[in-house]
Amino acid sequence: MSVLLEHNGARLEAGDAVLTVTGEVGFEGASAMAEAGSAWLAERSAGSEVAFDLSGVGRVSSAALSVLLEWTRQARDAGVEVSTVRLSVPLERLTRVAGLDTLLPVAA
Fold it and tell me: Which of 17, 72, 74, 94 is 20 to 30 A removed from 41 (C-alpha atoms)?
């Protein structure tokens, strides 16, 4: 795993086919996180698969959810399949309340 971004307690790491977010993602760092993840996604070839792991995000964060939705949109536009999305319990609740859980391939 390589570290793509560290900002105010939030961390974005990339593996072969996974972006992993840990810590507390706030709005002040969401743009930089979205950009760093987007740059990584831009390097994936069409037809490849990626996973997003946000199971280490500690608090409910609509900023983290916004970043996730941006990455999902970008992947779709580039022809990259999002195979799995892992969410922390607080993020899972937020996506369910927002009605977004059906739009994401959330892992059980």
Answer: 94
Nearest to 3 by CA among 26, 36, 35, 34: 36
Superfamily for the 2-103 domain: STAS domain (3.30.750.24)
C-beta neighbour count of 96 within 10 angstroms: 13
Dihedral, 18, 36, 69, 8 alpha carbons, nearest 10: 100
Distance, in Å, from the CA atom of 28 to the CA atom of 41, rounded to the nearest integer, reads: 22
| Domain edges within the chain | 2-103
For residues 104 and 75, what is the distance between their CA atoms, to the nearest angstrom?
12
Note the pLDDT tens digit of each residue in 6-31: 999 999 999 999 999 999 999 999 99
Cα–Cα distance for residue pair 96/108, rounded to 1 Å: 13
* Token reading at 44: 């994936």
